[in-house]
Structure formats: C-alpha cells, structure tokens
Amino acid sequence: MIRMNNRRSDGARTDLNDALAINSTDPNSLQLDGDLLIKMGHTDEAIAVYKKILAMDPKNRFALTSIGYASRAAGRDQDAEKYFERLAQAYPTLYVPWLALGDMNASRHEYARAESDYAKGYALAPDNALLVAGGLNATLRP
User: Fold this and answer.
1) pTM score above 0.70
2) Which of 8, 19, 35, 116 stands 20 to 30 A from 132 (CA)?
3) Is the Cβ–Cβ distance between 27 and 57 less than 8 Å?
C-alpha cells in the first residue's frame, strides 16, 4: 500500500502478489490489487478483479464504487450506471452513488437526470461541496 501510494508500482505489485499467494480470496487484498491495476492503467484487469470481489460479496461497497468508476473510465457508462445503482440500493444512506451518477449524467448532457441525482445525494449530504456544485451546474445547464 505504501509503495502504491508512492508510485512504486513494481514493489507494490510484488507485495500484492505475496499477499494474494497467502490468501487469493481476501477481499481487502483483491481491492488493493484492483486499485493498483487502475493506477497502472490496466482498467479491464481491474474490473475483472472487482467482479471477483462482487462474486464473493455482491454488496461490497468498495468494489461496487471502484467498478463503477472503472467502468466509466473504460467508456462503459451503462455498466457504470448499473454498479452505481446497485451501490445506492445496497447503501441507501450513502451519497457517493448519487454524486457519481450526477457527474456521469451531466457529462452526457442529461441535465434533468443529473439534477435529480445530485438532489438525492444532497438530501443525504447537504454539506458536500461537490454535490452542491454539481447540482448548480446541472440546474444552470447551457
């Protein structure tokens, strides 16, 4: 983890391989593996790792969040939307999926949907500046 955050991906890869050799089904090690793969630009491989976590724990909050963002980065908005909606359903008090959906819908110029998503997130976290800014941007659309 320290090596990964210090951009020493080779050392981090070695550390994660060691951890996964001990327990290849540990969701925490798998999550770190997926996160490292994202940082290394291996989005499709990371998505496969996150899917492995979700196969073991379909409501894993971190895997759902990560696979949503990874899917969006890979240009798979429909997949991203599906994962963010699963996250919202599994964790109804979490604002994160609404922020992610709002951002995604705003980028697709679907401002009414984005505004609705931001409003749902705002109801859960009214002090979150990103939700406030996103909601205002969606409301003041071009």
Assistant:
1) yes
2) 35
3) yes
